[in-house]
Amino acid sequence: LIMEKNNIREVIIQLLQLIMVFVILTFTRNEIVFAFVIAILLLVNFKIKYSKNEWWLFLIGCLAGFIIEVGLGKIYRMQYWEQDSLFGVPIWLPILWGYGFVFIRRIGNLIVKD
User: What's the pTM value of the predicted model, to 2 decimals?
Assistant: First the structure.
């Protein structure tokens, strides 16, 4: 699979934005501040490039992440969060799931061509 130069550049831009989220996490211990930072990065990301219905994909990702983290967390108790103000998980975690859904779709569309 050989990707076009523009696609490689776009994949790198998307990866750098996602990496930036995790770098910021290492410097921020306040979950509300981190959730706000993720929301700002997402808005900037959508301002730079937005495809139709990506907000819906983001919301579905947030909901799926919430259900998985809270639901499975309550059932299996395999993960512990120090800051857990949203039914046992950090506020930022479902937002990051939503961001991940958008990220995966964008990367997938750049790599896979029908």
Answer: 0.78
